[in-house]
C-alpha cells in the first residue's frame, strides 16, 4: 500500500493550549487511490485536514507533498503545489455566482497582475475568457445545470452547493483532493452518485482523494484504504475488510454506531 | 425574492448610456457658471473627495478592511505638493518642467504630473507599511491600528516644524501651513489661476474618471475576485490559493495611492498644506461618503461622495445653517457638521446598511450574513 | 515549545518596552539631580491620573468582553459625564465658598447623578445604535459606534463651546496633603484613588459574586449557552452597558475635579488612552483594564512632562500598535472568565 505516496505525514501532532488534538500520527496517501479517514466526532480528523492544507501549523512532525516539505507552508502555497479541499460546512463565497466561485478556485493558475488587469491587455482578456469557460466546463463536469451556473451561490440547492465546492477545488488543478464529509446532508441516491463521481475523478483525471466520511456505506463502497482516528490517534489502518474486522475499531467507532 | 430588490438589474446598454450621459453632463457643468463661481469651486472639491471615496472603497468596500486612518494619505499626498511644489525648501533650487514664472522662484518646483505620481507612489508605500501590522488582526483591531497610524501622522504634521531634516529644512510647517503652493501647470496649457476654476474642475474630473476606470477594471479582475473572496471568508480564500498577505497589501496600496493623488490635487487647489486639515474627523467624513452611497458599489460611492461633499459645502452652511436659530436654538449648523455626519452613519447603518445605491453582493452579506467570521487561519503571516 | 517561547518573549518584551520611559528618565534624574524624586513624582501622578483612565478602560473591556464591540462612543460618554457633573454641582450651588460638609455631600450626590446619567445614556446608545445590528457583520456596529461618538462630541461642542473651559477648583486639587519619600501627594491624587479603588473593588465583587454578574460572565463566554441556561441575554447586555457607563460617569466627575478643565474633545483623547489601556491589559479582562489604565497613566504623565504633551498621543499610539501586533492578548490575556 505504501508504493510511491503522494503525501506523507510523519509523527504529526497538534496541541491547542494543553489539549492534544492530534497525537503523533504517521500517515501516507498512496497515489491515485481513494483513502478515507473515519473516527468518532472530536477524533481530530478535521484538525488533521487543516494541518495538511496549511490552515493549522503542526506542533511537531513533518508533512511532505510530492517529496516537498509543506509542514510550515502557507495555505495558498499548498494549494498552488497541488492540494485542494472542500469544507465540512460548505464555505462558498455566497455573494458570488457559481461560475465566479469556480473562477476564484483558478486564482493560483492565473497570471493577470494589477497593471494588466487595469489595462485589460489582450492577453489578460484571453485569460479571463479561458478561465470562465473552464469554470463552466467544470460545473458541467460536476453536474451543475447550465441554468444554475449564473445563480448566486447562496441561492443554489444544498446538493448543488456541494458540487460547486468540488468544482471550485478542482479548478486549482489539484493532484490531491481533500473532501471533508462530502456526502453530509445528501440522500442515499445523491451519495451514490457522488461515490461514482469520485471514482471518475480518480480514473479520468488521475486524482488522489482523501476524504473524511461518516456514511459507512460510502466509506466501504469507495475506499481503497481506511484510516481510523480516535482521540487524536491513529488506531487502525487497512483495506475495508481488515478495518471492519479490527476489534479496536469496532469498539471505538463502529460498535457505537451499531449500538445506536 | 427580497434579495433581488434594489440590486442592479438594468441591462448593460442602459447602464452604459446612463454613465455616458452622466459623464457628459459632468464635463459641461462648469460652463453654466461663471469661471470663478462658488459652485465650480465646491464641485471641484467634491470631485477630489470622490477620488478619495473611490480609494477608500477599494480598501473597505472591496477587501473589507475597515480603515479609520485614511486621512493619512490625504496628508502625505498634500505634503508632497508642500515639499515639491512650493518655496518651502527655499535653500535649494530645483525646477522640473515648470513655467517661466515658477522658474524664478526659490525652492523645489516640480511639475504637477510628476508630483501626482510621486504622491501616489509615496502613499502606496505608506499604505503597505500601515497595512503590514494589521495583517493578522481581526477587523475591529484593524480599524484601531489604522486610526492610530492616522493620528501618529497627524502629530508628525503638527510637530513637523520642530523636526529638522537637513540644514534649515523642516518636515512640515505645522499649523501655520505651507503656502503658497504652485498652481497646476499641465503641458500645452497655461498655468492654472485662482480666477478661472474651470481647468481645476476638469482636472479633478479627469482624476475621477481615471480612478473610476481603474476601480471598475480591478473589481472585474482576478484581483477583484480575490478581494471579495477574502472579504467574505478568509479561510476559504486562502484554501483556494489566494495569498492573503499580498492580496490585502495590494488593496491597501491601491487605495492609498488614490488618496495621495487626491491629496496632491487638493494641496495645489487649496494653496496650503496645514496640519489642521488632517484630523481624524476627515477619515470619518470619507467613510461616511462611501457608506452613504453603498460600500463596494462604484457608482454608489460616486453619488455618496458628491452628496456628502455638497451637504458639507452647500446644504449645511448655505441652506440649513439658520434652521437652529429659527427654531430658537443658539448655534449654527456648520459647527456641528461632524455630528451630522455621525448621525448619517448611524442612520444608514441601522436603516439601510447597503447604502443608497447598493452593490449586489454587499446587500446579500448584510441581510443574510456570511460564514467567515471565525478566525481559523493560524498561518496568515508573511 | 515554539509557542511557549513566543508567548514569554512577547510578554516580557512588552514589559521591557513599558519600562523604557521610566528607566531612561530615572537615569537622567540620577545623573542630573542625584536622586529619583523627579521620576517618582511622575510615576505617582501617573498612577492617580491612570486611576481615572482605568475607570474608563473598565467600560471598554466589559462591553468588549460581552459583545466583542469596541464601544467607540465610550470616551464621549465619559466627556458627557464631566459636563453633567459640572452642570449639576453648579445647579445645587456648590462653589469655592461651600462648607466642607456641604462639599462632601454635594459631590457625593453629583457622583450619583453623573453615574446615573452616563449609565442610562450608555444603555440607550446600545439600544439605538448597536442592538439593531447584532446579527450584522461585525464592522457594522463599529461604524455606528464611531457615528455615535461624533454625535456626542458635537453635543458637547454645543453645550460648552469649542475651547477648554475651566471649572471651579472645588477641592483645591493641587494642594499637597503630605510628602512621602520625596513624593508629593496632592488632594487630586487622593481623590482619584478614593473614587477608583472602591468602585473597582465593588465592580469586581459584583462580577464574581452577584447572580447578575455571573450572568454577565456566562454571556461573555457563550451567549447561546447562556440563553439556554435561562439567562436573558438582552438584559445582561444592557446591564453591562449600564455598569460601563456608570464607571465612565464616575470618571467624568473625578476628571473635572482633578483637571479643573473640561472640553468637548477630552472624551476622544481619554477614550483612546483608555482603549489602549484595555488592550494592554488584555481586552475583556477587568484586572487587565485597571492595570493597563495605571500603566498608560504613567506613560502619559512621563511623556507630558518630559517630552511634550503634543507628542503623547503619538507615543501612546505607538505602544498600541506594538501591542496589537506583537501581543494582541495583552499583559494578562484575553480572559473574561478570569475577570476579578
Description:
The complex is a heterotrimer of chains A (260), B (382) and C (340). Chain A is α/β, with parallel strands linked by helices and 260 residues long. Chain A folds into 2 domains: 1-82 and 174-260, P-loop containing nucleotide triphosphate hydrolases (Rossmann fold, 3-Layer(aba) Sandwich), CATH 3.40.50.300; 95-168, no CATH class. Helices cover 42% and strands 24% of the residues of chain A. In chain A, strand 4 and strand 5 (68-69) form a beta hairpin. The longest helix of chain A is centred in the middle third of the chain and has 21 residues, at 122-142. The two termini of chain A are 33 Å apart. Chain B is mostly helical and 382 residues long. Chain B has 15 helices and 5 strands. In chain B, the strands form 2 sheets. A 3-stranded mixed β-sheet of chain B has the order 1-3-2. A two-stranded antiparallel sheet of chain B has the order 4-5. In chain B, strand 4 (164-166) and strand 5 form a beta hairpin. Chain B is globular. Residues 1-8 and 371-377 of chain B have low confidence and may be disordered. Chain C has 12 helices and 4 strands, in the order αααααβββααααβααα. In chain C, the strands form 2 sheets. A two-stranded antiparallel sheet of chain C has the order 1-4. Helices cover 75% and strands 4% of the residues of chain C. Residues 335-340 of chain C have low confidence and may be disordered. In chain C, strand 2 and strand 3 (183-186) form a beta hairpin. Chain C starts with a helix and ends in a 14-residue tail after the last helix. Chains in contact: A-B, B-C. Chains B and C meet through helix 6, helix 11 and helix 14 of B and helix 5, helix 10 and helix 12 of C.
Features:
heterotrimer; B: 382 residues; mainly alpha; 2 domains; two-stranded antiparallel ribbon; 15 helices; 4% strand; globular; disordered N terminus; C: 340 residues; ABC transporter involved in vitamin B12 uptake, BtuC; two-stranded antiparallel sheet; 12 helices; 4 strands; disordered C terminus
Amino acid at each position: 500500500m505504501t508504493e510511491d505516496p503522494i503525501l506523507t505525514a510523519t509523527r504529526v501532532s497538534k496541541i491547542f493550549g494543553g489539549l492534544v488534538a492530534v497525537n503523533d500520527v504517521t500517515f501516507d496517501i498512496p497515489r491515485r487511490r481513494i483513502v478515507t479517514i473515519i473516527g468518532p466526532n472530536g477524533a481530530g480528523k478535521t484538525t488533521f485536514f487543516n494541518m495538511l492544507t496549511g490552515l493549522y501549523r503542526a506542533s511537531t512532525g513533518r508533512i511532505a507533498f510530492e517529496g516537498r516539505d509543506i509542514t510550515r507552508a502557507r495555505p495558498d502555497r499548498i494549494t498552488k503545489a497541488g492540494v485542494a479541499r472542500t469544507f465540512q460546512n460548505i464555505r462558498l463565497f455566497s455573494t458570488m455566482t457559481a461560475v465566479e466561485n469556480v473562477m476564484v478556485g483558478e486564482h493560483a493558475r492565473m497570471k493577470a497582475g494589477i497593471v494588466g488587469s487595469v489595462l485589460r491587455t489582450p492577453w489578460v482578456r484571453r485569460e479571463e475568457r479561458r478561465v470562465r469557460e473552464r469554470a463552466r466546463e467544470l460545473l458541467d463536469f460536476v453536474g451543475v445545470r447550465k441554468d444554475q451556473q449564473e445563480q448566486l451561490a447562496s441561492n443554489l440547492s444544498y446538493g448543488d452547493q456541494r458540487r460547486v465546492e468540488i468544482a471550485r477545488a478542482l479548478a486549482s488543478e489539484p493532484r490531491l483532493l481533500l473532501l471533508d464529509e462530502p456526502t453530509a446532508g445528501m440522500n442515499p441516491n445523491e451519495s451514490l452518485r457522488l461515490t461514482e463521481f469520485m471514482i471518475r475523478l480518480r480514473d479520468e483525471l488521475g486524482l488522489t482523494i482523501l476524504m473524511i466520511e461518516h456514511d459507512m456505506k460510502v466509506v466501504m463502497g469507495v475506499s481503497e484504504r481506511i484510516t481510523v482516528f480516535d482521540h487524536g490517534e491513529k488506531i487502525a489502518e487497512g483495506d475495508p475488510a481488515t478495518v471492519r474486522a479490527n476489534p479496536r475499531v469496532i469498539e471505538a467507532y463502529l460498535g457505537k454506531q451499531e449500538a445506536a | 425574492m427580497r434579495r433581488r430588490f434594489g440590486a442592479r438589474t438594468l441591462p448593460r446598454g442602459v447602464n452604459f448610456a446612463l454613465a455616458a450621459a452622466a459623464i457628459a453632463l459632468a464635463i459641461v457643468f462648469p460652463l453654466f457658471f461663471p469661471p470663478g463661481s462658488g459652485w465650480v469651486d465646491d464641485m471641484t472639491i467634491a470631485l477630489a473627495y470622490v477620488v478619495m471615496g473611490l480609494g477608500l472603497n477599494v480598501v473597505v468596500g472591496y477587501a473589507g478592511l475597515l480603515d479609520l486612518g485614511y486621512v493619512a494619505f490625504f496628508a502625505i499626498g498634500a505634503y508632497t505638493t508642500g515639499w515639491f511644489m512650493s518655496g518651502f525648501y527655499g535653500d535649494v533650487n530645483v525646477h522640473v518642467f515648470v513655467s517661466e514664472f515658477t522658474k524664478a522662484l526659490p525652492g523645489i518646483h516640480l511639475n504637477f504630473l510628476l508630483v501626482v505620481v510621486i504622491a501616489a507612489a509615496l502613499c502606496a508605500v505608506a499604505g503597505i507599511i500601515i497595512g503590514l501590522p494589521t495583517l493578522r488582526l481581526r477587523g475591529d483591531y484593524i480599524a484601531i491600528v489604522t486610526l492610530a497610524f492616522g493620528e501618529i501622522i497627524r502629530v508628525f504634521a503638527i510637530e513637523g516644524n520642530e523636526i529638522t531634516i537637513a540644514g534649515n529644512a523642516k518636515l512640515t510647517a505645522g499649523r501655520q501651513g505651507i503656502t503658497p503652493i504652485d498652481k497646476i501647470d499641465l503641458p500645452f496649457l497655461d498655468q492654472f489661476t485662482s480666477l478661472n476654476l474651470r481647468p481645476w474642475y476638469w482636472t479633478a474630473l479627469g482624476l475621477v474618471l481615471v480612478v473610476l476606470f481603474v476601480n471598475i477594471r480591478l473589481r472585474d479582475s482576478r484581483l477583484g475576485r480575490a478581494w471579495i473572496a477574502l472579504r467574505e471568508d478568509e479561510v476559504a480564500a486562502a484554501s483556494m490559493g489566494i495569498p492573503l498577505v499580498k492580496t490585502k497589501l495590494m488593496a491597501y496600496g491601491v487605495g492609498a495611492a488614490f488618496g495621495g493623488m487626491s491629496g496632491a490635487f487638493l494641496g495645489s487647489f487649496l494653496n496650503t498644506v496645514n496640519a489642521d486639515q488632517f484630523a481624524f474627523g476627515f477619515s470619518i467624513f470619507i467613510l461616511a461618503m462611501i457608506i452613504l452611497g453603498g460600500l463596494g458599489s462604484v457608482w454608489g460611492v460616486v453619488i455618496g461622495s458628491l452628496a456628502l461633499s455638497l451637504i458639507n459645502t452647500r446644504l449645511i452652511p448655505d441652506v440649513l445653517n439658520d434652521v437652529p436659530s429659527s427654531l430658537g436654538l443658539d448655534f449654527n449648523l456648520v459647527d456641528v457638521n461632524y455630528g451630522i455626519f455621525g448621525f448619517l452613519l448611524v442612520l444608514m447603518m441601522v436603516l439601510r446598511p447597503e447604502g443608497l445605491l447598493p452593490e449586489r453582493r454587499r446587500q446579500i452579506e448584510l441581510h443574510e450574513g456570511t460564514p467567515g467570521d471565525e478566525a481559523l487561519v493560524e498561518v496568515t503571516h508573511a | 515549545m515554539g509557542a511557549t517561547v513566543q508567548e514569554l518573549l512577547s510578554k516580557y518584551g512588552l514589559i521591557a518596552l513599558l519600562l523604557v520611559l521610566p528607566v531612561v528618565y530615572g537615569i537622567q534624574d540620577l545623573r542630573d539631580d542625584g536622586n529619583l524624586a523627579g521620576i517618582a513624582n511622575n510615576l505617582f501622578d501617573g498612577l492617580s491620573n491612570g486611576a481615572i483612565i482605568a475607570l474608563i478602560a473598565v467600560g471598554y473591556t466589559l462591553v468588549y468582553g460581552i459583545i466583542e464591540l469596541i464601544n467607540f462612543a465610550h470616551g464621549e460618554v465619559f466627556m458627557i459625564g464631566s459636563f453633567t457633573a459640572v452642570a449639576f454641582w453648579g445647579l445645587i450651588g456648590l462653589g469655592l465658598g461651600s462648607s466642607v460638609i456641604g462639599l462632601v455631600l454635594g459631590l457625593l450626590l453629583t457622583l450619583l447623578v453623573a453615574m446615573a446619567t452616563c449609565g442610562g445614556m450608555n444603555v440607550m446608545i446600545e439600544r439605538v445604535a448597536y442592538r439593531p445590528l447584532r446579527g450584522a457583520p461585525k464592522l457594522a456596529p463599529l461604524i455606528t459606534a464611531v457615528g455615535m461618538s461624533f454625535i456626542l462630541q458635537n453635543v458637547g461642542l454645543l453645550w460648552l463651546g469649542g475651547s477648554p473651559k475651566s471649572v471651579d477648583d472645588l477641592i483645591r486639587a493641587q494642594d499637597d496633603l503630605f510628602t512621602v519619600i520625596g513624593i508629593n501627594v496632592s488632594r487630586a491624587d487622593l481623590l482619584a484613588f478614593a473614587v477608583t479603588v472602591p468602585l473597582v473593588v465593588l465592580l469586581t465583587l459584583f462580577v464574581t459574586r452577584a447572580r447578575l454578574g455571573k450572568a454577565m460572565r456566562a454571556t461573555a463566554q457563550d451567549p447561546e449557552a447562556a440563553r439556554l441556561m435561562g439567562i436573558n441575554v438582552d438584559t445582561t447586555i444592557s446591564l453591562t452597558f449600564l455598569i460601563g457607563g456608570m464607571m465612565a460617569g464616575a470618571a467624568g466627575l473625578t476628571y473635572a475635579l482633578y483637571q479643573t478643565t473640561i472640553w468637548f474633545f477630552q472624551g476622544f483623547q481619554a477614550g483612546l488612552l483608555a482603549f489602549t489601556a484595555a488592550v494592554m491589559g488584555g481586552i475583556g479582562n477587568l484586572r487587565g483594564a485597571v492595570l493597563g489604565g495605571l500603566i498608560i497613566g504613567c506613560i502619559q504623565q512621563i511623556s507630558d512632562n518630559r517630552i511634550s504633551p503634543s507628542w503623547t498621543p503619538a507615543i501612546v499610539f505607538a505602544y498600541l500598535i506594538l501591542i496589537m501586533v506583537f501581543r494582541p492578548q495583552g499583559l494578562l490575556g484575553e480572559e473574561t472568565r478570569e475577570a476579578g
